[in-house]
Amino acid sequence: MTTEKAVQKSSNEIVAGTLTRGEVATLKQTLAPQGINDAQFNLYIQTCAASGLNPFMNHIYAIPYNGTMNIQISVDGIHYLARKHPDYITASAEIVGENEVENFEAELVNGEFKILKHKIALPIRGSAVAAYAIAKRKGAPDQVIFMDRSEVSNMEKGRNPLWKSNFNDMFKKHVMKRALKAQFGVDIDDHTIDGVRDSVQENVRETQRKEIIIDENESASEEDLRTKVEKEIEDLMKAKSMSSDDVESLAMKQFEKPAKELTLQQLTGLKRFVEFHQPPQPKKKQEEAIEAEYTEITEPPLPEEPREQEGQKKPSVDEMNFDEFDFNAMQEEFPFER
């Protein structure tokens, strides 16, 4: 086996849950510059391994903040865990458009919602006025979560830009998260997470063992984190004389989407790219730098011949007297071969 093949085989070796050695190394290279230390990284990897969640599928995030770390499980991660349950049937979420209100019916019976009718209005559904999610499980009643738009107004007006740019998607994820937790909450919250921290190194400070948040970019703590990172990016922009367009270009280049649509973890990564970004010099400064580096060297001008004074005439060759000319002295000062 060649060295190259041996390295490739080692890189593809499963070492933590579903993660390969190469993927763990990639996560380490990505998270270490963001301020996550070895003990915190080990907690993150062990959580991934214990739950079966995959960071590369956006199931689970590690978010550093002032020396501590939050581990957040996305709605996609919760849904992934629910589908692994042997009694899982299905789960879905949908919005109710303002043009669909007349063809939508739901009722509340004994504290439980039931969706009786929902006819989709095409091609124009209108703005979302409500959303609902249904999580089904064998041997258990359906869990139905129904919310009108006013119930998420605080999130819509909050600091998370995704609620403004992708409202319908975030609204559906919000009700889906609630339905899944209501139907499979014990299994997700307890079975997959309990015991993970017991195996973490003892040198992890208790303040670093932040609660594992099962959320979709909605918690107040995450909004605070996002605001802090955005402020740090603004300060870096001022220090580096970068414009908003410069930062948007970095976001599109590195993440292929605008900065306002980045997740908190991606926004933290963007901050690092801004920190190491070297904006191009203005053309004038470039020319000055080149001119300073390659200064033109010119020969000093020859001394001017003495001008004839008025009334003075140059002697002819016959009139010149060489009797007092010291050729020996000239030879000493300007030697030449005879």
Automatic annotation (TrEMBL):
<protein>
    <recommendedName>
        <fullName>Recombinase RecT</fullName>
    </recommendedName>
</protein>
<feature type="region of interest" description="Disordered">
    <location>
        <begin position="275"/>
        <end position="338"/>
    </location>
</feature>
<dbReference type="GO" id="GO:0003677">
    <property type="term" value="F:DNA binding"/>
</dbReference>
<dbReference type="Pfam" id="PF03837">
    <property type="entry name" value="RecT"/>
</dbReference>
<dbReference type="GO" id="GO:0006259">
    <property type="term" value="P:DNA metabolic process"/>
</dbReference>
<feature type="compositionally biased region" description="Basic and acidic residues">
    <location>
        <begin position="304"/>
        <end position="317"/>
    </location>
</feature>
<dbReference type="InterPro" id="IPR018330">
    <property type="entry name" value="RecT_fam"/>
</dbReference>
